Amino acid sequence: MLLLITYDVNTTTPAGAKRLRNVAKQCEKVGIRVQNSVFEVLVDGAQWVQLKAKLEKLIDPENDSIRIYRLGNSYEHKIETMGKVPLIQTGGPIIL
C-alpha cells in the first residue's frame, strides 16, 4: 500500500530539532521525499505497523504532529503532479 506521510515537528528547541531529524531519517529509510516534510512510502501491512510504532516513539505528541494518508494499492490513479517531479517515482523502476 502507498502511504503519504506528512509531519510538523516543533523546532524551537534543540530537542525539537533532533526529533525533526530523527523523523526525517526514519521516513528516508522507507520512502521517497516528495516535499520538505512529505514522503511517499510503499509498504505492506506488517511494515506499516512497524513504521507507525517507530514514528510514534520519535515525536512529542504535545508539540508535534504526523499525518498519514493511506492511498492503498491502486495509488497510480490517485496521484496528480504539477510542477517539478522527483527524479524517482514511487513504485517505479530504479535503474543504477
Write structural notes for this entry.
With 96 residues, the chain is an alpha+beta fold. The chain has a domain of 66 residues: Alpha-Beta Plaits, CATH 3.30.70. Helix content is 32%, strand content 26%. It has 2 helices and 4 strands; from the N terminus they run βαββαβ. It has a 4-stranded antiparallel β-sheet with strand order 2-3-1-4, covered by helices on one side. The mean pLDDT is 86.
**Helix content class:** 25-40%
What is the overall number of helices? 2
CATH architecture designation of the domain at 2-33 and 40-73: 2-Layer Sandwich
Number of strands: 4
How would you state the average pLDDT, rounded? 86
Structural class: alpha+beta
- CATH C-level class of the domain at 2-33 and 40-73 is Alpha Beta
Key structural traits:
96 residues, alpha+beta, Alpha-Beta Plaits, 32% helix
What's the helix and strand layout?
Elements (H helix, E strand, L loop, with lengths): L1 E7 L5 H17 E5 L2 E5 L2 H14 L6 E8 L24
Helix pairs in contact: 1-2
Compose a concise summary of this entry.
This protein is of the alpha+beta class.
